[in-house]
Write a structure and sequence with these properties.
By secondary structure, the chain is mainly alpha-helical. The protein is about 70% helix and about 0% strand. It folds into 2 domains: about 15-65, Arc Repressor Mutant, subunit A (Orthogonal Bundle), CATH 1.10.10; about 70-205, Orthogonal Bundle (Tetracycline Repressor, domain 2), CATH 1.10.357.
């Protein structure tokens, strides 16, 4: 399963640091693969260590505990999403076409294994007192998303509060489609829902109309 590495392109690292980063990546990859294959319950401490080819003590050295590993997976997924979305062409086509293209790209990420794994972790950790449920973490993620949307739709005619509601609405719709597909265990025909989402976003992003 391909994942984003901790080692960025062109970033100089020493041999020991590179070894440490590679070990972290192996641990995260092991967790993701276990959850993808068998659900959240499959990612026990013993199985994580075995799949990564390390002792559990090594995993604790790098992440502190299992919760630290899971939070790192969530953080990695969030980074992957921002990087995936920022690459979308922004200046081509009408407003309707640009919004549709954005929604389709969002859905491409949401329906992938990376997001489904993160969703399973988030649902399992929702009652735990952790960094994941920290309001400061949520606010940081919201600011990143607002910045992303402002970059993708620089001519949007809305304030930041409205934009946050649109971001939340997009998340609710797409996450709902993912959960529906997981529960039904079928490939859903999402054309209608994605089209409705695109039209809703356009009506709020550009309330004055005059498609450009």
């Amino acid at each position: 399963m391909a994942t984003r590495t901790f080692i960025e392109k062109g970033m100089p690292v020493g041999k020991q640091e590179e070894k440490s980063l590679n070990t972290k990546n192996r641990i995260l990859d092991a967790v993701k693969q276990l959850i993808e294959d068998g659900g959240f319950a499959a990612a026990s401490s013993t199985r994580i260590a075995r799949a990564a080819g390390i002792s559990w003590g090594v995993a604790q050295h790098h992440f502190g505990d299992k919760q630290g590993i899971l939070l790192s997976v969530l953080e990695q997924c969030s980074t992957e999403y921002i990087n995936f979305m920022i690459e979308i062409p922004r200046s081509e086509g009408t407003r309707s076409e640009r919004i549709q293209r954005y929604v389709e790209r969002c859905w491409e990420f949401y329906r992938g294994s990376e997001y489904k794994i993160a969703l399973e972790i988030a649902l399992a950790m929702r009652f735990q007192d952790s960094e994941f449920t920290n309001p400061e973490t949520f606010e940081r993620q919201q600011l990143q998303l607002v910045e992303l949307w402002r970059t993708v739709f620089p001519d949007a005619e809305v304030d930041d509060e409205t934009l946050r509601h649109l971001i939340r609405h997009t998340y609710i719709v797409l996450s709902g489609l993912v959960i529906d597909g997981m529960l039904e265990n079928v490939d859903l025909n999402t054309r209608f829902q994605l089209g409705m989402l695109s039209r809703t976003l356009e009506s709020y992003l550009y309330p004055a109309g005059n498609d450009g």
